[in-house]
Amino acid sequence: MNYWTSLRLKARDFFKRNKRKILIFLIIWLIVIIIEYYLRNHQVKVLDTPSTTYYPFVSTMDEEKKVPEQYQEPIQNLIDQYFNYCNNGEYENAYNLITEDCRKKNYPTIDDFTNYVNTVFEGKKKIYNIQSYSIVDNKYIFNVRILDDILANGTTDGYYYYEEKFVLIEENGEIKLSIAEYIEDEKQEISVEDDNLKVEVLNKSMDYETETYTLEITNKTDKYIVISDNTQTKEISLYVNGYERYPTNMQVAFFMLPPNSKRTQELKFTKYYDENANDEKIVFNNVRILKEYDWAVGTTQENLDNAVDIYSVEIPLSE
Predict the structure, then answer these.
(1) CA dist., res. 247 & res. 51, Å (int)
(2) What are phi and psi of 201, to 5 degrees?
């Protein structure tokens, strides 16, 4: 057998044993040729600049709402100034940037405010980012993320952050800051009275997530009046657009008046400031006029069996 005959036989044997692999290789090679031809003859559109979805002055709750341009720079500068003062321990200067209502309500002294700053800043330099969250009644509510300034603090222990709502409000012609989610207080002049008690609604205090009513109740009888002691269901309700909500601060608190007494009581409810919902009424669903009462035990079946009266009281909050 000559050389060429041997070579031809070996080649035929090789192709016979590897024809599947060769076929796959040819298909792949053909696909590569086709792709290369397509890319060579079709331009690929490349974006000139990357897109972004960060618009700090557009409300995340309603993208149709935007902080007016004339307020954007003053708001940014005010928050910058506030953080610079807090970072540098200039507490009084930072304190003066806060609305009068916020100071009066939550930080009546500079020491109260200093304690708040020290709790949030933890003795470290902080940086922040802001995002317009909601705009209601010319109040600009921002979500503020407060982070450790790693470069200033010289640490790599972690990158923790704290969030709260800042509210920017125009006060006496200039933008002021309300912190820790506080919005405002509204004085109330609502009074309901019957033979047993008198209820006066004195104030409504609004944070972003809650509202708190301050009531003054007078017991006009020589009996005990029990409004809430967590022994009955739904003892106090707030009606908002027809739906009931219940106090968040009464789970362990007793709302009871001894004979011929008066007391002030706060009732806190969950309600977001931008809900666009109306408070209709507060209802005491189970007012108990009792001859005897032991606050350590709460209302017993014996109390109920011997009650002078059990009824409900409605306090209207809107016309």
Answers:
(1) 45
(2) -90, 115
**Is-contact 114 91, C-beta < 8 A?**
yes
Could you tell me the fold of the domain covering 184-316?
Immunoglobulin-like (2.60.40)
Q: What pLDDT does residue 21 have?
A: 66
Report residue 14 as tokens. 């090789």
Residue 88 pLDDT: 95
Confidence check: pLDDT of 157 > 50: yes
Same CATH fold, 184-316 and 69-180? no
Q: State the Cα–Cα distance between residues 28 and 309, nearest whole angstrom.
A: 91
CA 138 to chain centre: 19
Instruction: Note whether 128 and 144 are within 8 A (CB).
Output: yes
State the sign of the Cα–Cα–Cα–Cα dihedral 83, 86, 89, 93: positive
pTM surpassing 0.85?
A: no
Task: Yes or no: say if 201 and 188 are a contact pair by the CB < 8 Å rule.
Answer: yes
Angle at 284 between CA 279 and CA 287, to 5 degrees: 170
The helix/strand/coil state of 8 is: helix
Question: What are the sequence ranges of the domains in the chain?
Answer: 69-180, 184-316
| Homologous superfamily of the 69-180 domain (CATH) | NTF2-like; domain 1 (3.10.450.100)
